[in-house]
Amino acid sequence: MDTAQLIRLDAEAVACGLSRKHGVAWLSEYADRTATHYLWPALVHRLNHRPEYSPHWRCMVLLTVRDGQQIFSLLDVLPASFDQLPENVDAVTKKEVAHKLMHGPLPTQAEWADRNGGS
Q: Is residue 28 exposed (0-12), middle (13-18) or buried (19+ Cβ within 10 Å)?
C-alpha cells in the first residue's frame, strides 16, 4: 500500500480507539511517501468491551521510513477496511515480506524512533 493508504488506516484506528504504535502525525513525518508498505494480518483481535470494533485484524507492518530503512510496526485494521485494500502483490513478494516480518532482523518503530530522534 502507499503511504496515504497507511495513514488513512492509522487514522481509522485512532478514531476507533484501537491499538497502534505510531500515529498519523508520526507516519506523516517519517514514512517514506514514495515507498510501498506492506500489511500482514497476524491475528484476530477481539475486544469484549468494544463489540462494535470486534473482531479486527492485528496486522504487522513492513514500513519504509524516510531514510529508506524498513522497520516493523503494528496496526489494528477493521476487516471491512482490510478487504477494501487492493490485492496487488505477487506470491514471491508475499513470501519475501512474510519472511522479513517473521524472521527480521527489523528494528521496531520505537527502536528506529529512538535512534533517529523521531519519537
A: middle
**CB within 8 A of 112, min separation 6: which ones?**
65, 69, 71, 118
C-alpha distances in Å from residue 51, one per residue of 45, 58, 101: 11, 15, 29
Cis peptide before 105 (omega within 30 of 0): yes
What are the tens digits of pLDDT across the range 34-87?
Answer: 999 999 999 998 888 888 988 999 999 999 999 999 999 999 999 999 999 988
- What distance in Å separates the CA atoms of residue 23 and residue 35, rounded to the nearest whole number? 18
C-alpha cell at 40: 500482514
Domain ranges of the chain: 3-116
Please count the other Cβ atoms lying within 10 Å of the Cβ belonging to residue 80. 8
Which uninterrupted H or E stretch holds 40?
Answer: strand 38-45
Closest CA to 84 of 8, 3, 16: 8
